[in-house]
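yo

u said u wanted the structure for the complex thing, so here. seqs first:
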Amino acid sequence: MPREDRCQCRVIHEERIAGARETALDKRETGLLAQLFKAMADLTRLKIIMALAQDEMCVCDLAAFLGVSESAVSHQLRMLRQLQLVSNRREGPVLYYRLADHHVSKLIEFALEHIRE
Amino acid sequence: MPREDRCQCRVIHEERIAGARETALDKRETGLLAQLFKAMADLTRLKIIMALAQDEMCVCDLAAFLGVSESAVSHQLRMLRQLQLVSNRREGPVLYYRLADHHVSKLIEFALEHIRE
DNA sequence: TGGATATATGAGCATCTGTTCAGATGCTAA
DNA sequence: TTAGCATCTGAACAGATGCTCATATATCCA
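structre next:
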């Protein structure tokens, strides 16, 4: 990539840019990271995850707890399912959702410590 | 909140909803959490944070490293500054940005472990 | 099988978000 | 003070996102 494609400024610290490039994660992992954070960046999804960290819940329970429509919950659960953050178990017509992995709730706890400083 | 305002379904586990309500964080903390995750949910910002975790960098360096305009970088840095995730130091006309707190990069490392499983 | 319940899904829509562009600000040196 | 560079900022626009509504699917039971 020729210099003029990158930046017109005079003050560039080439070595820092090179350093950043070296330590940077590959595109795939960076994308996955962003996806994971995006999953928790929405209030509805964040609350779903935190609720499921306590106990499994059905769509209806979650909708009641969050005060949103079941359709909205279902749409968000779909995204969380696709990211394999939650899984479900069927009992008759009812689907019970739970966290697929408690790594995520640890991540939230960790972030919470940052907020509380 | 009367029952009919919440959910029309017959199958509700009142005690789970109550349990979720009890353990739920207050509105302010939940909002801050979502904001923090949102800050890391965008590829540009995530890369900025990861780059600054290595070394401080000026806007120009970051723009060159990321391959985006300086204006775009500046806008994103503004958001990260408002969330107090980054701070800067002036040296003449150049502003050097760095992480305000390495908690954030630890958070990324932690999330990375989840991704690598 | 038919009807009721729980959930899923797709389309449509309003809002949010990230970028670009133009212009403003701040610092330095001549 | 003026010119030049680095950065910031606001407006505008395109694309992403989350919700709603209508409909589809799945399970159970009469």
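Residues 26-116 of chain A form a domain with the Arc Repressor Mutant, subunit A fold (CATH 1.10.10.10). Residues 9-11, 42, 44, 68-69, 71-72, 75-76, 90, 92-94 of chain A lie near DNA strand D (CB under 10 Å from a C1').
cya
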